[in-house]
C-alpha cells in the first residue's frame, strides 16, 4: 500500500511519543514493502500559539488528504489553569473528531502477562481481562448546547436515535467477532438521554440473537470494571462515560501509557493514545510511547494488514518481557529506558524479526 499519513504531534509529551510512532510506522512499512509519506500539521496549544486556532483549516486539509491520522496529545497547563480562556487546545481535538465524523472510538483494554504483578489490582482479578470499550465520540455533553455566564453554566447531554443506532451497530459488529457479549452502559435511572440509549438498544438486541446484550448503570460498571473485569467483552457507551471508564481501564493494563485507540466513522480515521499531554513529563524522555505505538498497530489492522499489526504487537510484548520499559512500569531498581530508547528497541526488533 502507499500510505499518506497526517501526523499531529500536539503538545506536552505529544511530539516525543509521536516521533516513536512515526519510526515504528516507517519500520513496518519498510519490512512489509509499503510506501509511506508523512505530512505534519498543527493542533492544540501549539496551533493556538502559531495561528490562534487549535485546529487550523490547513490541518483539516492535511487530515482529508491523508489515509489515516496519527494523533498524539493536546493540552497545556496555561489553559488547564485558566477556566476563563475562550480558546482551548482540547477544542482542536474535538473539532478534528467532529469535522471528520469520527463517531466511534475503539478503546481496547488488555493485560500484559509480565505486568500483571505491577497492577494495584490483584493478579487473580485481572489475569485474562480483555475487553473493548466502544465510546461514542461526536455526541453527548461534549457537543451539546453549552451556556456559561456569571454564576450559571450548563452542558446539554443530547443524543438522537440515529447517533445511538450507528454506534450500537459498530458495537454489535465487534461483539460478533469476539465473545458475543455486549454491555450497554448508561445512567437510564436518571438521564433522559440514557433512557433513549436503552430503548434503542432494547429494540436492536433481537436483531443479534447470537449476542448476549446486558445493561448496566455507569456507576455499577465503574465498580465492576475493577472488581471483575473479565465480566466484560464489549462495552458500548456515550462519550463522557467512555472517556472516564477507559482511564479507569488503564489501571488493569498497568499504565495510561499503554492504551491505544482508533477513532473511526465517516472521513479519515485517527489513531490516538487515550492519554493526554502529561505536561509534567514534557522533554524528560520518560513518557511511555507504547500507547502511541499500539495505535500504529490499530492503524494497520484498520486497513486489514493484520501481519503488520501483529509484528508491532510482538515487538511491544518482547520489549515489555525484556524489561525495556519506561520508568512507570519498570521493576524496582531496573534499568532506565526512556521514550526514545523504548521506541528504538521496538523499531530494531521489527527490523530484525
Ligand atoms: N487525547 C488527548 O489529547 C488528551 C487526553 C487526556 C487529557 N488531555 C489533556 O492533557 C493534559 C493533562 O491532562 P491529565 O494530566 O488529566 O491527563 P494525562 O493523561 O496527560 O496524564 C495523567 C497521568 O497519566 C499518566 N500518563 C499519561 N500519559 C502517559 C504516558 N505516555 N506514559 C506514562 N504515563 C502516562 C501520568 O501518570 C500522568 O500523570 C490536559 O491539558 C488535558 O486536557 C488530552
Ligand atoms: C482532551 C479531551 C477532550 C479528550 C476527551 O475527553 O475525549 C481526552 O480525555 C480523551 O480521552 O481523548
Ligand atoms: Mg480522556
TrEMBL record:
- Which is an annotated Pfam family here? Iso_dh
A GO molecular function assigned to this protein is: NAD binding
Principal cellular location given in the protein's record: cytoplasm
Annotated keywords: Amino-acid biosynthesis, Branched-chain amino acid biosynthesis, Cytoplasm, Leucine biosynthesis, Magnesium, Manganese, Metal-binding, NAD, Oxidoreductase
| Pathway where it operates | Amino-acid biosynthesis; L-leucine biosynthesis; L-leucine from 3-methyl-2-oxobutanoate: step 3/4
Recorded family membership: Belongs to the isocitrate and isopropylmalate dehydrogenases family. LeuB type 1 subfamily.
- Report what the protein is called: 3-isopropylmalate dehydrogenase
Query: What is this protein's function per UniProt?
Result: Catalyzes the oxidation of 3-carboxy-2-hydroxy-4-methylpentanoate (3-isopropylmalate) to 3-carboxy-4-methyl-2-oxopentanoate. The product decarboxylates to 4-methyl-2 oxopentanoate.
- Its gene name is leuB
Start and end residues of each Isopropylmalate dehydrogenase-like domain: 4-346
Q: Where is this site: Important for catalysis?
A: 142, 187
Amino acid at each position: 500500500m502507499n500510505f499518506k499519513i497526517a501526523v499531529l504531534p500536539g503538545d506536552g509529551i505529544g511530539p516525543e511519543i509521536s516521533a516513536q510512532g512515526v519510526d515504528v510506522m516507517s519500520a513496518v512499512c519498510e519490512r512489509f514493502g509499503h510506501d509511506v509519506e508523512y505530512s505534519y500539521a498543527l493542533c492544540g496549544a501549539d496551533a493556538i500559539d502559531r495561528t490562534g486556532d487549535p485546529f487550523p483549516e490547513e490541518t483539516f486539509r492535511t487530515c482529508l488528504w491523508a489515509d489515516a491520522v496519527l494523533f498524539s496529545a493536546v493540552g497545556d497547563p496555561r489553559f488547564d489553569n485558566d477556566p476563563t480562556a475562550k480558546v482551548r487546545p482540547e477544542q482542536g481535538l474535538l473539532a478534528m473528531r467532529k469535522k471528520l465524523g469520527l463517531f466511534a472510538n475503539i478503546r481496547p483494554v488488555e493485560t500484559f502477562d509480565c505486568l500483571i504483578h505491577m497492577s494495584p489490582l490483584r493478579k487473580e482479578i485481572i489475569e485474562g481481562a480483555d475487553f473493548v470499550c466502544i465510546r461514542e465520540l461526536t455526541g453527548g455533553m461534549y457537543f451539546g448546547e453549552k451556556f456559561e455566564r456569571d454564576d450559571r453554566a450548563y452542558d446539554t447531554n443530547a443524543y438522537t436515535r440515529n447517533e445511538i443506532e450507528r454506534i450500537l451497530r459498530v458495537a454489535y459488529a465487534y461483539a460478533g467477532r469476539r465473545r458475543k457479549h455486549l454491555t450497554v452502559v448508561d445512567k437510564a435511572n436518571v438521564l433522559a438521554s440514557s433512557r433513549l440509549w436503552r430503548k434503542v438498544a432494547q429494540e436492536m438486541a433481537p436483531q443479534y440473537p447470537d449476542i448476549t446484550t446486558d445493561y448496566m448503570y455507569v456507576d455499577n460498571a465503574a465498580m465492576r470494571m475493577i472488581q471483575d473485569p473479565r465480566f466484560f467483552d464489549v462495552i458500548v457507551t456515550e462519550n463522557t462515560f467512555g472517556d472516564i471508564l477507559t482511564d479507569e481501564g488503564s489501571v488493569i493494563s498497568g499504565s495510561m501509557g499503554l492504551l491505544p485507540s482508533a477513532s473511526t466513522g465517516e472521513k479519515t480515521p485517527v489513531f490516538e493514545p487515550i492519554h493526554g499531554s502529561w505536561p509534567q513529563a514534557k522533554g524528560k524522555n520518560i513518557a511511555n510511547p507504547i500507547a502511541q505505538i499500539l495505535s500504529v498497530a490499530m492503524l494497520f489492522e484498520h486497513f486489514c494488514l493484520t501481519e503488520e499489526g501483529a509484528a508491532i504487537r510482538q515487538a511491544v510484548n518482547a520489549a515489555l518481557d525484556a524489561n525495556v520499559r519506561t520508568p512507570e512500569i519498570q521493576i524496582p531498581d531496573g534499568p532506565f529506558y526512556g521514550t526514545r530508547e523504548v521506541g528504538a528497541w521496538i523499531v530494531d526488533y521489527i527490523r530484525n524479526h
